[in-house]
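look at this:
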Amino acid sequence: MNNRRTRALLRAWLSTRPDPALDAVKYRNDLKEALRHTHLTPGDEDLGAFLFAPHCRARYDTPVLEAWRRAHHEQEALYELPYTVAEGFAAKHGIPRDVFLERIAPRLTRLETLRLQETAEWHGPAAARAVTAARLHVQRRTVRREAAHRLCFLPLHLALEGCLSPHFGGPAVAWEQWSRRALRQGLFPRVEAAWLGADVPGLADALRVFEIHPGQCGVLVHLADAPAAAFVVPHPEGYRVLHPPLLQDLHGDLVHHYATLMPPVPDFRSRIDDTRIRSLADLRKAAREQVARWADFHDTTMVSGLLEQERTWQWVQRMGRFTLFRFLPPFRLRQDNHIGEAIADEHGRTVCLKTFRLSENQVRRGHLLSRLAAHDWHLADTAAALGTTEARLGLRLEAAGFGHLLRQDVLDHYRGQTRAGHR
């Protein structure tokens, strides 16, 4: 079938591909036939020449296409290509299989590594070492590009993805303790609990009743004396528009817990000693003192965990003059830990900022995963750093909901070791 709708669908699909040159190298014949069938022309001159007359160029400007050209007569160039393409060139140049696998290991994808691990004994010890120690990388996003100039993400989903994604891929090294599911899928599907503002009892009433002050550009949501979320924009008019949709933001377990299970907190009232008031000037002075005192109490006590927290900022996306970031806490136990997202302009000024307070359970899970990632997912090294045994660490992972990452026989062995230690 070849009609206007088919050609439009293929154009839209091609526009979403992050690296058309890499697609052309890996799937050259299929891509060429698709373009020929729909009478479409590649947008890039290098790409068109590569697909339809690959040997007419003395040199390509695109690095992966130039590596493909050089790989016909240079062995070193083939190690710049994807594994499936480089494999054919290695056979052409007569490179021993174990040498090729050891050199190409850094470019292997997760599934390629797993397939080779299953057959590594066929290719000798050098090949087995190469694929066993190969790092496994995966990236799964809840925020996706819809088109060249559009991103699709929901409020604070990006920040939650930031909490998940640094360790979302699971083990970075294929150590023997990890299960096949962990190596194939990582922590996917990993979820974290969050509540829509509309589902938090009393929040809608609070947003409706709270007065929006002249010049207000943001809001801090507190539960008793605990900061739960922050929302900031650069202009009061922008805040007025975005104030009601705060009910569509995500909030942590702490917000819902306080709203449904905790008794009402007493009113925090500011009191002025009337015995010191002799005139309107005295009243104004006393009022200013109370405002300054409350501001100091708020900044040094009520939001100190949010303002003084160390953060790791991650660049996510740039569109025009705006850049999208997310930030993560150090996952310190028994402390406030806030994740969030921000949009900044070309001068570094904040255009939008939102935060999300993690629950204690989420902090504990993040702490475990960050420690594992810091030690290349090596259980013995991580256990030593945490001051515990490998078996106890394995059971901690199980208790945190990550037991499926470990092989069942390894987990049973850890349980046996722990029971023996208690006798």
Summary: The beta strands are 144-147, 150-152, 195-196, 218-223, 226-232, 250-251, 312-319, 322-328, 338-344, 350-357. The longest strand covers residues 312-319.
